[in-house]
Amino acid sequence: MNKFIQKISSLLWPSEPDFEHCEFEKFEDSLENFQIFYPSHWFYEKETAVIEGSYAIIFHSKCSPATMRIEVSMILPQPFGEKEFVKYAKNEIEKPTAGILSKARKTNLKNLPCVKTDYLFSDGKNKMYGEKIFIFAGDRVFNIFFICFEKDRERLKKIFSYILDSLVIKPRKKLIFV
Fold first, then answer.
1. Which CATH number fits the domain that encloses residue 131?
2. Structural domain count of the chain
3. For the segment 149-165, what is each residue's pLDDT rounded down to a tens digit?
């Protein structure tokens, strides 16, 4: 990238702060399924569209195009146990999307079964980094997606890890159908 474009880019998107310089705010979703702590220099879209038993909350950085999306699926096919979840999540992660291919790996988060991946891609101008994790909470599936500039990858991986570590999945209280 030439120096002029780098300068314009740095003016439009100031650097993300290091994890050690971040403050975090608590977020509790209005449907009472989860809570997290997110960086105070980020904001979230307040509108929550519920479609076919799923909804998503999207968080955006004010310092870069970094974005995190948390989707909660509350209507699951039956039967839908851990085995079906792993197959579903692997299929979702490994299907080619906009030319992005990635390999899913099974793991755990807070003693819950997960399937996750990370990958690099280009938005046409910038190298980007992404992570996707599906979490099976028995009666719900949480799909968390995170993207950022590849140059901010290491700095934001610490923040994303902190957000995931702060995730509290609450007992299901409400049924939603739209």
1. 3.40.1000.10
2. 1
3. 998 888 888 999 999 99
